[in-house]
Automatic annotation (TrEMBL):
Protein name per its UniProtKB record: Alanine racemase
UniProt xrefs under SUPFAM superfamilies: Alanine racemase C-terminal domain-like, PLP-binding barrel
Active site: 38, 266
GO BP term (any one): peptidoglycan biosynthetic process
Function noted in UniProt: Catalyzes the interconversion of L-alanine and D-alanine. May also act on other amino acids.
Organism of origin: Lientehia hominis
Alanine racemase C-terminal domain segment(s): 245-373
Amino acid sequence: MMEYSRTAAWIDLDAVYGNVKALKENTRSGTRICAVIKADGYGHGAVPIARKLKGLADYYAVATAEEAFNLRNHQIAEPILVLGYVPEDAYEKAVLEEIRLAVYTYEMAQRLSEAAEKCGKQAFIHIKLETGMNRIGFKPGEEALTQMEAMSRLPGIMLEGIFSHFARADEEDKSYAERQYQIFDGFVSALKKRGVEIPLKHMGNSAAIIDLPQFDVDMVRAGIALYGMYPSNEVDRRRVRLAPALRLTSRVIFTKEIEPGETVGYGGTYTAQNRMKIATIAIGYGDGYLRNLSNRGYVLLNGKKAPITGRVCMDQLMVDVTDIPGVRQGDEAVLVGRDGEQMISVEELAELAGTFNYEFVCDLGKRIPRIYLDGGKIVGKKDYFTDPYEIVL
């Protein structure tokens, strides 16, 4: 596609839809699906994914109020839960837009009650319970039970949900996850004995959906698995078959021969041992391609592996194409995805770089346009440079 002759991320919406169906099939009957599309859908694009999942996902979850409002601005009408911090000056707008907020202090509930009364609407809240992550949330105990009883009586407050988050469900040893669930279940039971019944209880993340369907409760939150990636190498991939949604491509912009003893890139970290042919690819760490892949990663050219030589630069990287016949300027380079019989996965690159798949996809930068495929056809695109900026003088 000549319009994107430099670099592009190709997002297969059918793969996302199929992944959600596969995850749903591994849950208990009646369990609702909350699609986690924070960080712009883990770098894939929150709005197109939300639209594709209409009728399949019951809820959406994001990390910030701004992300939630952006979905509403794009006519995403389903319930949206903000999992993290929301400043008080956004409470009224959140109430008016029927955005669900995670509440983890009694004072937050009080402020939301005031905002709801002022707006003349209910504030839908999901209580965050701390069970072993030690991030945000009420610590289970008598004080928390008393506070939640009081919250249930606050004017304008609708206790729609209560949730927690597994810290280690992606490990082969599930004992910590089991203890977390027992704490959560015990606290919910104690609340019920006090007459506080909350409709939506949710704890399962991608790892738990795959390995611990017995802990589904009323709703599960699927994040990384939506996009066809597994949360770790320790989950049982046989339970749920996922298809990667991302294909990342760039272009060969230059080729040259170098002689033995010549070095490649900043710092001269790669030295040619023989006469070599080097190709320069139009992507770098300024696009979110990991610099730690210097002298470690590879790309696919003409269906063959081309190792990265030297350091990944901000805007370009160099690869060894000595053993790949016919490489020339303009050829497509595949950085993630399939080319012929060869395949590069996000997980493979992340492992080579000493990180994990979540970080790789979330780091993909705004210089990379997202191109959306549905039924094998291009149905949309997101070019971040076409967004209008507020003019500041």
